[in-house]
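User: I'm putting together a teaching handout on how sequence relates to shape, and I'd like one worked example. Could you take Bacterial extracellular solute-binding s, 5 Middle family protein from Latilactobacillus fuchuensis, show the sequence you're using, and then write out its predicted structure as tokens right after it?

Assistant: Happy to. First the sequence, then the structure tokens directly below it.
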Amino acid sequence: MIKHNARLKLGLSGLVILAAMVFLHISTVQAKQVLNLGATAPLDTIDISTSTGYGQTGNIYESLYRLGTNGKIEPGLAKSSQVSADGLTWTFKLRTAKFSNGDPIHAQDFVYSWQRTVTPATKSPYTNLFSSIVNAPAIADGKMAPTELGVKALDDQTLQVNLTTPVAYMKTLMAYPLFAPQDQKIVEKYGKKYATKAQYMVYSGPFKLVNWTGTNDKWQFKKNPEYWDHKKVKLQKINYTVLENTSTALYLYQEGKLDLTQLDNQQIDNYRDDAGFHRYPYALTNYLKYNFKSTDAKTKQILNNQDVRLAISLAINRKTLNNRLFGSKTNPITGFVPTGLANSPVKQVDFAKSQAVADTVDYEPKKATEYWQKALKTLNTDQVSLTLTLNSDDANGSYVGQYLKGQLEKALPGFKLTLKTVPSQVASSRDKKGDYDLLLAGWGADFKDPTSFLEVMLPGSASNTGGFENAEYSAAMAKAMTTDANNPSQRWSDLVTASQVLSKTQGITPLYQNDTAYLKKTNVKGIVHNTAGAQWSYKTAYIK
């Protein structure tokens, strides 16, 4: 018996030791669920209503839906939805969910958030995304009260949205963090402090922000235990450090201190065969913007000559430009709408393929010369001088400017292109005022639909500072957004027509689509990259 007890005690001790080892193993595994990332710039704001983008912060805010792999719509705070036969009334049933402070998320939190965003005093840069909601444009213009917005809480779990015109991409739009709920109690509690530091905000997404003071270069996303789907979130923490120098970032990656790092043009060739090499295209088109409303009569005449614009476009060797910018290119530009944004409703054909029009954004030096000579004859001149305004904060701006100057002046006799590089704030100011001849601009999609690009070039659009106007273009867009809005195939055809008109007239001249190369540790799994909207999602990410 004594020996038996000794064995029993020894067995129990062994079990205790084994349990401790298992616990230590589990703890070690859990401790590894930390992702280390670099950021190219500090967070400028975490206020949903005033943010200019949600590339990373889409992980701390969630709306009615979210984007999964390949842009697939997945459930968010809405567990179901219904739309009326005319497409004008959407009713969303909310799931039981909480903000990070434990406050329940109700339909009224969406109503409050959206009303706050469209209120003129908020100065949201994205009120245009609410334009299809009843009374939103009038409210944004200060002509109606925010309470008149076409959104209401039928009860705590039911949100109703009334539209002026059907929105074919409604669920996609509702995945954008701009439409996430806000806790009115918290906004009023903190007043002017709201969203100025991490602790002056509450979060609806899989993570919550910590250790952000409003100006610092380091912060963290921590798993949000109140998130409705928190059991599926494996990462415990994401560490961010601002690293503006890609060489420093690459060094930290090689030292095991970063799990994902962006490569610059010079680094790509050295790591193209690395197991961790990945390309992540983004639906962002860089293009030449023309000032059709120039106050200089001669310049205005030149820029309004379609042959001039076609000559410029056909004289640009985009393949060479793209190769020099990105090392290699898999997504050739075919028009304003980039590759990978959206597919047709029936045959799933990429819109970028459908919009292509021969001899508009191709490299055709002979045709470029023909258009150029025709333009010079019409303008009754043999010399044309224009100025291209560049943003000094654009990493590619200087090279693109020099490339265009060399290419165009060589291909188009008598053409002189002057480059004017200014700080980003100055470039933005000149853009808004229409104080430029040509401007190197960029536009990225907020949601996965061609209208995210094509609406930009409609008369009255805040981004159409050059004043492009074309009756056929406007008519096609109008049909897509009204009479054909509930007919997916016909709507798609309308949008293709509009984009082709833009290419044929060269209302803008597309140059290249952003395509960024990264190194990612092979044990990092489950990161979702989207070409539009919230660019990075870490809800399903984990360290293997």
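A couple of points you could highlight for students: The chain has two domains: 34-241+521-543, 281-515. The first strand starts at residue 34 and ends at 39.
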